[in-house]
Amino acid sequence: MPQPQQPPSILWFRRDLRLADNVALDRAVKAGGPIICLYVREPGDPLAGANGAAQAWWLHHSLAALDTALRARGNRLVTMTGDPRHLLPWIVEQTAAGAVFWNRRYDGPGRETDTEIKATLKEKGVRAESASGFLLHDPMALKTQQGRHYSVYTPFWKAFEATYQPPAALPPPDAIPSGTFDLDGEALDAWGLLPTKPNWAAGFESLWQPGEDGARTSLGAFLRGALGGYAERRDFPGETHTSRLSPHLAFGEISPHAIWRSVSSLKDKMDQDDPTRFAKEIVWRDFAWHTLFHNPRLDSVNLDRRFDRFEWRPSEKDLLAWQRGETGYPVVDAGMRELWHTGTMHNRVRMIVASFLIKDLLIDWRAGERWFRDTLLDADAASNPFNWQWVAGCGADAAPFFRIFNPTLQGEKFDAKGDYVRRWCPELARLPNELIHRPFDAKPGVLERAGVRLADTYPRPIVDHAKARDAALAALKTTRQDVPED
Question: Are residues 331 and 278 in the same domain?
């Protein structure tokens, strides 16, 4: 006689769109029985969990890649829309599932939803388990000796380094058993995550490979190339010393533990500064999420509440010029155009353009955070507002507000030959190196030979940096009392 089928388990995917190093998947497989692989688009969220339109493009392709990987192992991804607090118990009833597994999320609403779901399922006698898989260190575990959360990065790094041991790698299972269930789900194409008219993401496909395979490819390329010299060259946007892993991390297509193990394995084979500097960037991501965990309104509330009285000067005209890369400051414009065309921006340039918006234009950091959230492929709920608050001087372990980047000097220091500007502002390409970051200082004859007509082919500066700096410092003095005199 045939043996009765073991009750199925539900594996609820969120921002853990991978099969390797997936603790929830590992537990579901070990539970035995068939597995229902589920992804839920929650009510009121047309982007299905993506933080913006750019990420929606990525999410579509990442879910498609995950479904392909599951089908190769005898399963498939079920995509459904509904409130998971009601949808998961309903699926349990429909399938007689005995367990639900998922990897934790750390934003406030997500935590509240997960807590409610876990309580509901346990009341029904269903095994409900969440696992840690999105970060290197769970925010609930890493605390000061006084039991508080860290608000300064250096002691956070030291505590992390003293306690962290990467878990053993979990290879992807060869097979993921599936059962016969009446769960048709919804067609991914019907979610409308891809832009059509116009298809502003047309250039993304030649630059990015969403999904777990793409994450492994990016990591391998980084380890073989850009990691060498990373500590010294990471600030130069015209070079290639970046990992290109941040979008993959944002969607959990690769585990941060896997990155840590891979980078650590090379420490004896290269300059120690390179893997250590990169490791600190991964831990900075953890620091941002730890901060969000303890400050759920990070995207809207200043951590330093003294900045609540800062006198912002909103200007739709200036904001639009910044968004379009038409400020008249080449490195700022190059960064904003890179963002629009590629869905990413070099880290050093992110700081420059953020400083310009906040301190040259005196536009609220939250406007910049919203734009980045919509246009960055790697935007996440923690790192994006955390880094904007850091630049603004109102965040955790923040750079002081009176540290105001001079966009011209920053360009000359980190893009001395103008390679980055020439790529993204081709109308300036024929200017000599010494003027590529200051076309507004070029003599008429130089501009004419370069084919540059200020206010026509390229804008004049929308603000005088020296005057803007003075205005920013004056505004700051009404906000804080500990500003040093110039």
Answer: no
Report if residue 299 sits inside a domain: no
Instruction: Measure the CA–CA gap between 425 and 337, rounded to whole angstroms.
Output: 8
Containing domain of residue 227, as a range?
135-167+212-294
CA 23: distance to chain centroid?
22
Which is nearest to 45 in space by CA: 35, 31, 55, 36? 55
273: Cα separation from own chain's centroid: 24
Domain presence at residue 201: no
Number of domains in the chain: 3
Residue numbers annotated as active site: 281, 284, 312, 347, 365, 388
State whether residue 458 is helix, strand or coil.
strand
Please check whether residues 310 and 419 belong to one and the same domain: yes
pLDDT per residue over 314-343, tens digit each?
Answer: 999 999 999 999 999 999 999 999 999 999
> Residue 180 in contact with residue 7, Cβ under 8 Å?
no
| 156 plus 235 within the same structural domain | yes
174 is a domain residue: no
Out of 271, 294, 317, a domain closes at 294
Question: CA-CA distances (angstroms) from residue 346 to 259, 292, 335, 415, 416?
Answer: 20, 23, 7, 12, 16
Q: Is residue 176 part of a domain?
A: no
263: left (phi over 0), alpha (psi -120 to 50) or beta: alpha
Structure pTM? 0.94
- Both structure tokens of 227: 């990691």
User: How many Cα atoms are found within 13 Å in the side-chain-facing hemisphere of 449?
Assistant: 7
**Residue position matching structure tokens 């919203």:** 370
Q: Name the percent of the chain lying above pLDDT 90.
A: 87
